[in-house]
């Protein structure tokens, strides 16, 4: 079993990518707020009073940014859990670094191509699918490792 200390390179790789993904999540949340402010389109009446806008729940630009944020909220927490469990199985540092790096880069690309719809499909689908497969891979590896080592 892997030694779970912050001096373990596997843990360090996990921490770095988890932090980047957390910052990305915060950034996309800020993008949603910025988009609402610049378009003066809000979800709550009290915001309209303070920022002189309108209540509108279906603005296409705001909704696109919000959907990118929601997609992150559905996928990044799974990485945090599965990645943390995966490093306990003692995988190789090179392979783990590659998995985490590809996951992180693809999630960033996913947001860019989601928010900027000028990039054609299947770019968003690919940027979504690769991290999705990585999460499944790590989850299956964790379950398999611990079933075989009961």
UniProtKB/TrEMBL annotation:
It catalyses: RX + glutathione = an S-substituted glutathione + a halide anion + H(+). It is an enzyme of class 2 (transferase). GO terms for cellular component: endoplasmic reticulum membrane; mitochondrial outer membrane. The chain crosses the membrane at residues 12-34, 76-93, 126-147. Its main location: endoplasmic reticulum. The keyword Phosphoprotein does not apply. Its EC number is 2.5.1.18. Keywords: Acetylation, Endoplasmic reticulum, Membrane, Mitochondrion, Mitochondrion outer membrane, Transferase, Transmembrane, Transmembrane helix. One of its GO terms (molecular function) is glutathione transferase activity. It is a multi-pass membrane protein. It is found in: Endoplasmic reticulum membrane; Mitochondrion outer membrane. The keyword Transferase applies. Belongs to the MAPEG family. Conjugation of reduced glutathione to a wide number of exogenous and endogenous hydrophobic electrophiles. Homotrimer; The trimer binds only one molecule of glutathione. This is Microsomal glutathione S-transferase 1.
